[in-house]
Amino acid sequence: MGIRTGAQYIAGLKSRQPEVWLHGRRVTNVYDEAIFRQPIHEIAKLYDMQHDPLYQEKITHICEETGERANNAFLPVKTPADLQARKNLYEAYAKATFGLMGRTPDFLNVVLTSLYCNASFLEAYNPQWAENAKNYYRYVRDNDLFLTHAIINPQNDRSKSSHEQQDMFTHLGAVKETPEGLVVRGAKMLATLAPITDEVIIYSFPGFKPGDERYALAFALPIETPGLRIICRETMQDGTRSVYDHPLASRFEEMDAVLVFNDVVVPWDRVFLYNNVEAANLLYPKTGIGQQPAHQTGVRGLIKLQFATEVAMRIADSIGVDVFLNVQNDLGELIQSVESIRALLETAEREYEVLPSGELMPGYVPIETIRGLLPKMYPRAIEVMQIIGAGGLLMSPTDADLEHPELGEEMEKYYVGREGISGKERVRLFKLAWDLCGEAFGQRLLQYERYYTGDPIRKRAIFYNNYKRSRPCTLVDDALRIYEQKAEAASGHDIGPQRVTN
């Protein structure tokens, strides 16, 4: 089929009925559910961009296998130009959503492409796993599907591994093998946007221990598979609020969910890894499924940080406080954060790495540095926005107030900004800011940025250990060499023109 349209994506949603639970009730029609409708249309717009002459050449390519157009998320990266084509896609989708939707279709489709390109890793353990992964990539690519994933265990007793939990199937694990497939039971989280996706892919972070074999799993299923239950978190907004009063929260709410598998049968041709702790622990470092999507999250994070910074700047300008040194200092800090992430992205793309398969990946050190900095930089941007907006963030009237003929004059008089900024303009700027820095929607975005890549402290520790192993402290060795030269001088050996003194 090649690239889908937004209408085709929506038609697919309407044709299915996954088991979705929201606020204690079963959702029977995802598209007609108010909380999902606007996010569905935002995703549909991304699909339509593939057909827009302004974007098509930048975000899609002609597939060598099929001769049809495919999204650049499915492009195997063999050259620096391919890496740039990927970035063009990430940037276009991030700008269309202001960086506020972290799990747009490009994210997981890049994971599948990496799994496809590096299927030789799976082949070393089980040739059928590799064949399954390659076939699944082609299926998703050719039908242009939208995936969610769930790769984290529920927060139960974190001091114990999966097999040590009170219930054997608190964490998702294999129950038994059948001729039809592998039966699995238990839960995984956080499945972002799960109710409005086509399929789900399951895999896990490294960290499996002996005894965890039944939990070492990787597979994919249609989202409406019998026995798969999607339990949504409480909504951050109800789907009925005015887009003019909540221009961001009303459009970009990404529902998160816990996935509960009640003896779900995974067909054998959808199993990519099973019952192998070693393979599960090596899946990330050997296939690029962590580093490649980090490129997407880096670009998205840059756009999100840039957006928050621009909102803070416009808020400060609208009420004339950016003439003060302390405000200029804070806003300058945010701008430098944006430019730091931009520079790191360009460095990661320039200093790319090549996997044994020939696939190019953005450089590990700069891309991981982005992952370490964004969880600090974005919360700081929100804090600055809150400080600059101060009490004004709490006092915005509704858009209906602004438009009412009896209130219009007072709205302009009492909500006016600095010279040249009308009351209507100032209020709408503050509404935009409140969605980002005050609403539950904005607080979810904040928490997401802190933890979207996992525990930031653990990630930074892993980064340090990898850096230490791969980059010896040669400057220190060079500085300490003076003592070797001193010893050589004392023994009468010629050390060249350098003067050595006691």
Describe this structure in words.
With 502 residues, the protein is of the alpha+beta class. The strands form four sheets. The chain has a six-stranded mixed β-sheet with strand order 2-1-10-11-7-6, with no helix packed on it. The protein is globular.
- Spans where pLDDT lies below 50 across 5 or more residues: none
The helix fraction, in percent, is: 40-55%
- Main structural class: alpha+beta
* Cα-based radius of gyration, to the nearest Å: 26 Å
Number of helices: 17
How far from one another are the termini? 78 Å
Strand content: 5-15%
Shape type: globular
Biggest β-sheet description: 6 strands, mixed
Kindly state the mean pLDDT as a whole number?
A: 94
In total, the number of strands is: 14
Looking across the biggest beta sheet, what order are the strands in?
Answer: 2-1-10-11-7-6
Key phrases:
alpha+beta, six-stranded mixed sheet
Task: Write a short abstract of this structure.
With 502 residues, the protein is an alpha+beta fold. It has helices at residues 6-14, 34-49, 56-59, 80-96, 105-117, 120-123, 127-143, 277-287, 291-318, 325-350, 364-389, 399-403, 408-415, 423-437, 440-451, 456-470, 474-490; strands spanning 19-22, 25-27, 60-62, 69-71, 147-150, 173-177, 181-188, 199-202, 217-222, 228-232, 257-267, 271-274, 353-354, 360-361. Helix 5 (105-117) packs antiparallel against helix 9 (291-318).
